[in-house]
Structures are given as structure tokens and as C-alpha cells.
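Hey, sorry to bother you again with one of my protein questions. I've been puzzling over a protein and I'd love to understand its fold better. Take your time with it, there's no hurry, and the full record follows here:
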Amino acid sequence: MKKLKLTAAMLAAMLSFGVMTVSAEVVDDEEVVDDVYIYGEYYNSYYPQGSSVSEVSDVDLKTALTKVKNRLKIPEALSEFEYNVSTYSGVTSYNFTWYNPDDDTVYPEPLAEGTSVKTRMRATIVGDIITSVSVNANKIYGDDGMQKRFGKISPTNYESYAKKAVELVNPGMSSHLKFEGMSARLYGEDVDCSLIRVENGIPVASNTGRVSFDKDTGELLSFNISWWDGATFKNPSTKVTTATIEKNFESAIKLDPYYVISRDYQTKKITSEIVFNPSDNYEFDAFTGKKTTMYDDMEELAKTMPVDGGYYSYYGNSMDYVESEAAAADDADFSAAELREIAESEVRYSRDEAVELVKAEKYILFTDEYKLTSSRLRTDNSFGPEKNYWNLSFEIRADKKYSQINVVLDADSGKIESFIQTGKTGYFGYNDIIEEPVDESGKPVTIEQMPMFNVTKANTIGKEAAEHFYGDIFGEYKADKDNTKALSKDPKTGKTINEYSRDIKFNRYYKNIPVSGEYIVITVNAYEEVVGIRKNHTEGVSFPEPNILTTEKAFDKLWEQTDFKLYYSGFTAGGKPHTYLMYQMNGFYMNARTGNLCNWFGGELDDPILPETDYHYNYSDSNSLGTLKPMIEELAHYGIGLEPTGGKFSPNTAVTGKEFYLLMAVLGKNYSHSDLDDMENSTKPITNAQAAKMFTIMNGAKDIAELEGIYSSIYTDVPASNENIGYINIATALGLKLSDGTQFKPNSYVTRKTAITLLFGFLDK
């Protein structure tokens, strides 16, 4: 990929002539080769994806830049220009950047408050479609800086401004989009909107994006979208019915029952339920009613051209290691070292004894070259009685030679719970980490130099080792069917492909139903050595009896609770879009005993919020709220509101201390609230006097409010001797209008209507 930096003069020259003849400084040069994730496997496209300047037509570059500049106004202050050109999956994109070379904070003259000064603009165009725009700007504020406030644009006009912003970037695009999820921020300047392409009234799953605009001016701030330019979408009039899809779904999908185990870390209870987990989540072609051919088509086309399905998978492992420190008896002040020694003295097997047990274990290939490099005693009492474990690490470190053994050993029973041995004798595949074996001198051993992996012998060794290490629980486990899978063959040569090692796995069952996530794994290498063992076994779990629904009844219950979604999907191959109309069932789990859709642990699903509009706070009495209704709706666009009471707003109902606190906290005063006397957590109605006290403390004026003898009464019903006189006077001065002008009514409750009106008034500036 070539990245060039052009001056304003060079840019002007480029746009003035039919052919661009400018010299440019190449500041970055790299070839990009992307892996495309298709149907569960990675296919390297083997196409050089980056395009150098010499490979891109000057005329095409000029055309792309002209299209962008015809739609976007580039401020004169952004006098510097950079661009790069890249090609991915046969599609060329032009990426332009304009920026101010001066310090972003230095301006030639004083600017009015609220003025927005652009410091950088970026745009990407593919063909005729601008796929992204971003505007970086500094906004000038007064002495108070940025404040939480409403924008000048009413939320009722958000969609029209979002459409204008999209039309500015890509004329005609907005008529093919659904605008949803409108959200604004009190602290900040932007309103965000989600975009999804809709064709023939049906959403296009992979063509989505976002647009944001200034909440005061409507000016475009950012835009991005995935868009299949030139795609055609088949008319859905001839699609099959959902009844046909349901029938085909029942034929294609198995509802496999699993026991699932859940743990409550507060109560330390372990429970189990039986869940139907569908064997697949097929997408069905809406015209044939059969499983879609899209992924097969992608796989076939990927053999001859770059393919982009819009599906990218990123994998990462995050492991949290938690060490449990031994608790000191009574109130004695022990050091960390003393606590460690106390803990070690209370276990049956000391560290030295644990090391000897490892050395004596026949399946661990231990030699005198291994040295103990680390040891740690950890305690686990998450569920049931406290258990102690030794974590031991041994290493061989020599010139061109490295090997490691990691062991977890039960410090009370002496049993080896797990171990991993790498480096010296062979490959160990754990969490898909591939380590090639080395010989005694540390030289890598190729798979061709290793003996052919003996599947039958490996299974025998794996079973014997599993019984040796886990004999007390092994009776609950059955061998996985993939254990005996034959070695694969090279499709071109027909030769058998050797394996460095294989995980011989055993799965837990209860009354012939598998227990999810419970396993024993013995890793055997091609030298017929055990190089690793591990298990996941939950003790103390009670399994319910497998009185489960029949498959027919389960599907009947499924159709009562959910349905298929209809959408367009597809991919690009060689830059050409291929589209498909799909039916798909959302992923689901079903309680196998009740037939109710459930979470993975068999429990009830959380009730999703299904707003009728773009905001969350909807009330059945909203049409009777008068002038309060637009206030509620505007606050809701910022994610602020009061939860319904029986589905209603109930304006004359008292607001609780907790509700009032959360509303006032929106104003964002950064003071300690430790003096609120738990009013902020109260579920009881809050009085006017309590509200004044809370508001004053939240604004950092507690000490002033409690000064004695300096306040006179400003309300006829609040004498100067009232204990809250200071709070009431200060809250009133700060704008908390809880009275009718002459009376404060300190013991009256703050209504939901009053609370919303107060907050709206503070923000509507």
C-alpha cells in the first residue's frame, strides 16, 4: 500500500489536468495479504491486496477525489492532503485525509463560543459510494467548559437530520435505509443513528452502518457503512412460506439434550438443568426452502478469486489467575511470608513431598535435568469444603534446548489433577497452540521424521491414563467418537497426513444424556507418550431426572414462542456482489423439561426491552401527559427517565429518594455524596425538604448550608429556625424550584412530574 503526502499546490495541479503528473514522497510501503474467513475455515486469497501508485490510474484517482469534493465541503484551513489506495477482494478504495498543519489549538482570531473549528477530515470512497467520513473538530466553549445540556435540535427532527447527512454523502442512499436507534449525549456534541439497508422491504444483514451529526447544527460529524454497490436483490414474491421452512427446519435440526451446570458464587449453590441445544442454526434459502448454498458458493469461488463474506472472526484467550491468601487467625498481623508458611504447614503434602510425587509419576517423563522453577500453594473454597492445590513448574534450560512441565497437584490427597509437558519429547496441542517437537539437542523435528501416529494404540494409552489419574470419576465418562477418527489423507497425493499428537477425550454423561463442559482429556503424541492430562468435573451436583419433551412437542413449543427472520445476505467475489434471500431462526436454548425458551443454564430469559419508538421509556398514559410528554421523550433520547409504575408514568405519584438522586446526578456535579444519609438509596417517597438537602449536598454546598444564624426565611411556611433553612435557601438559589413562590411545603412529596420538569429545566439551556 502506498501512502503519499501532497501539498495544497500539488492537489490543485492534480485537479487541473486530465493526467496527474506530480512527484510525491512515499512515506509508507507495504504489501497487504489478507486471510478471508469463509465457512469455518481460513482461505488465504494469495492475491497482493495493496496497490501501488503505478498500478492505479491517475484518471481514476482524480475521478474518485472529484466525487468526494463535490459532496463534501473541505475548509480552506485544511490545506494539507494525504491519500492511499488499497484493493481488497477485487474492490479498490481511495482513502483521503485533509488536515490543518498548524497546532490544533491555535486560531488566527478570537472565535465565538460554540464555534466548531475543523482540524482534520477523512473520507473513503469505493466506486460511487463514499463508505466513511469522519470530521475532527475543536469546539470553543465559555469559561464553564462543556456542560451537560440538550441540543438545539429537537429529537422529533433527529431522523430528518440523519437523512440529510446521509444524502450529503451519498445522494439517493437514504431511501434505501432504515434509520433506528437514535441516541444523543448530554455531555458531547453528537447524535448517533444506526443504519440498515432495506430492499423490497427486507433488511440486508451485511449492509449496515452509522451516522452522527452535531446536536445543535445538524452538521455531519461521521458516517460509515458497508454497502454492496451494484447488487441486485431478487423480488421476494415467490418465496416459500414459513410453514414450509418450519417443516424443513424440523427435518434438518436435531434438538440435542444436555445437562448444564450453573454455579451461584454468592450462595455457593450448584444446580443443574436439561437444555435442548439445536445441532445447527441453518439458514434456509427463501425460494427453495432448503439449506442455503451461499457458503458452498463462497468456498468454490474462493478457489479462483478473492472473496469477502463480511464475516471476520477474531479469537483471543483471556485467563484470570486468582490467588487465595490464607486468612490469619484472630487479629494477628502476619506478613505475607508468614501467611504462606502457615498455609503450607496445614496441607498434607508439603512442596518437597509434592515434587517427589511428580518425579515418581510413571506418565510424566521426568529426568534429573528438570529443575523446579516455581511453586505456589493455592486454596479454593468457592464451592464446598476448602481444597488446596500445588502449582509446580519444572524446566530444562540449556543451549538450544528447552522443555517445561507444569503440574497441578491436590495438596491434601496427593493426586495429580493435571499436567502439561512441552518441548523435550513432542508436540502438545493445548488451546490450539502449536509447538513443534525438538530432539535431544534442541533441533526441531519435522513431522516426517516422527513415527506414524497410531490411532488404536493412542486410544488404548489414553483410556489407561484416564483410569489411572481419574479412576474415581471415570465411570461417568464415555469416549468421544472423534478419538478413533482415522488419519486424514492429502486430497492431491492420497498420502496419509501424520499427526504430532491427539487429544483423547472422554465426555461426562448422566443416564445417557451428556453433561455440557464436563470432560477428561489425555493428550498422546506420536511417540506414544502421554504429554498432558486435564479434566473439568463438578462435584456435588444433583442432576434432575431426564423427563424431557419429545422432539415433536419441543418443536410445537418452539413455534409458539418464536419465528424465522427474513433478510438478504451475501458476499462479494472478485468485486461482484452475490445476494441471497434467507430465512433464519435466531439461536436459542430450550428447557427440555418445560419447553420454555431459556438461557444457557436453563433459566428464564430476561425480558428484553422492546420500545415502540427509538427511546426506552414508554408509558401507557403518555397521551394524557400534555406538555410533560415532549419533556419525557427528549430526556428518553438521552437515556434518562423514570421506570414505569404499572406501565404508566403516573405524574402525581411521589418520586423515591433513589429516583430523585439518579435524575439529579445526570447534572454531573463531582462532589462527594457521603453525607446524604442513604437518601440516595431510599425507596421511600422524598419530601421537598429532603430533596433540597440532597440537591445542595450534591452541589458541594453542605458546609455553607449548615452555617447557623445567617439565613432569613424566603417562604411563609419555612421559619428561620427550621433545621433545613440553609439547604432550602441554597437549593432555591441554585434553581431547584419546588414551590409556588410563597410556600415551600417542606413535608410535601416531590411528584414524578415535578422531578422530570426540574431536570428538563436545568438541561434546556
Summary: Residues 455-470 form the longest helix (16 residues). The CA atoms of residues 615 and 633 lie 7 Å apart.
